[in-house]
Write a structure and sequence with these properties.
Layout: E1 6-11, E2 17-24, H1 38-50, E3 58-69, E4 75-85, H2 88-103, H3 114-122
Parallel strand pairs: 2-3
Antiparallel strand pairs: 1-2, 3-4
Helix pairs in contact: 1-2
């Protein structure tokens, strides 16, 4: 399955933007699937506001997942639209933490970290 990132903005009344983000999956959603995108949606809202745009305090995720595969190989998709409450303030906190990590000292490798072990073997 090919995965990609597509992001659209919609203008609503009063000139505020609402993020509409498309997600593709290989299987139907679980009840909490949308919660895994909360940080991403909060960051989008924060970044838009930081760049001078007015935004609503919610976003939409539009999920596409296969419903049926035809004999021709064509895939028929189901969709589910989910509205998520967002927090630009939370997005700002996450952004600042990321900047602190980037500007901070490189952490020491950890024996329990799979990435550290992989990186150690490739250096």
């Amino acid at each position: 399955m090919i995965r990609g990132e597509v992001l659209w903005f919609s203008v609503v009344k009063d000139g505020k933007l609402v993020v509409l983000d498309y997600k593709t999956r290989g299987f139907p959603l679980k009840e909490d699937t949308h919660e895994h995108y909360q940080t991403q949606m909060d960051l989008y809202n924060f970044l838009l506001r930081k760049n001078g745009y007015k935004t609503e305090d919610y976003t939409y995720l539009l999920f596409y997942y296969p419903k049926e595969v035809l004999e021709t190989g064509e895939v028929i998709f189901d969709t589910k639209l989910i509205k998520i409450k967002t927090s630009a303030e939370n997005g700002e906190k996450i952004f600042k933490k990321a900047v602190d990590v980037i500007n901070g000292e490189e952490p020491k490798p950890s024996e329990g970290c799979g990435f550290c072990k992989l990186n150690k073997n490739n250096i």
